[in-house]
Amino acid sequence: MSGFEIVDAKEAHLPGVVAIFNHAVRETFSIWSETETTLELRKAWLAARTGSGFPVIVAVDPAQPNDVLGYGSFGVFRDFPGYVKTVEHSVYVAPTAQRRGIGRAILSELVVQAQAKSLAAMVGGIDSTNAGSIALHEQAGFEIQGNLKGVGRKFGKTLDLVFMVKAL
Ligand SMILES: CC(C)(COP(=O)(O)OP(=O)(O)OC[C@H]1O[C@@H](n2cnc3c(N)ncnc32)[C@H](O)[C@@H]1OP(=O)(O)O)[C@@H](O)C(=O)NCCC(=O)NCCS
User: Fold this and answer.
1) Ligand 1 center from residue 12 Cα (angstroms)
2) Cα(80) to centroid of ligand 1, in Å?
3) CB-based contacts of 166: which residues, under 8 Å, 6+ apart?
4) pLDDT for position 27
């Protein structure tokens, strides 16, 4: 669909990123935290990611270029040299902008950028009940390669983590 474009995130986008992140914290199991983030924390995250050469991208409406419809990024998977060719990514879309192809476009752009860096694999860690995200990743060529049972906890529930991997 049209009506949005994917661009590199700037500080002006961070209030939108904070809003999407905190909605996910409050209302979903997609982020395993019950603590909301802040603009300062997201500024530090953006600086750390981009300073390490990792992408942070946002989907915006060209008519309202600071209004964030969704965002995505990837970074270190596990911090040991042997994992240097593998990254862990995330993708989030504002509740009011879901099912318009934005998640698919963000994930596709992250794959393109990972391939351009000659990386070997992308890993997504997904709550096992997040059927939408699992379907999105399957469509993008990711496959389930692990199901870690009982490794998470939120809102008093014990959670399972699915690892979905795409070989690049
Ligand atoms: C998961 C998420 C990123 C999907 O983004 P989106 O922009 O809504 O998804 P898209 O419109 O690009 O959908 C692409 C495909 O993914 C699948 N999909 C997306 N949302 C789905 C849902 N709620 N239920 C079932 N399938 C879904 C479908 O196959 C869809 O293709 P289709 O619309 O042609 O059927 C979004 O719902 C989201 O941000 N959710 C909350 C946070 C989250 O779960 N993030 C992922 C953490 S791992």
Assistant:
1) 25
2) 31
3) 111, 121, 122, 137, 140, 141, 142, 143
4) 97
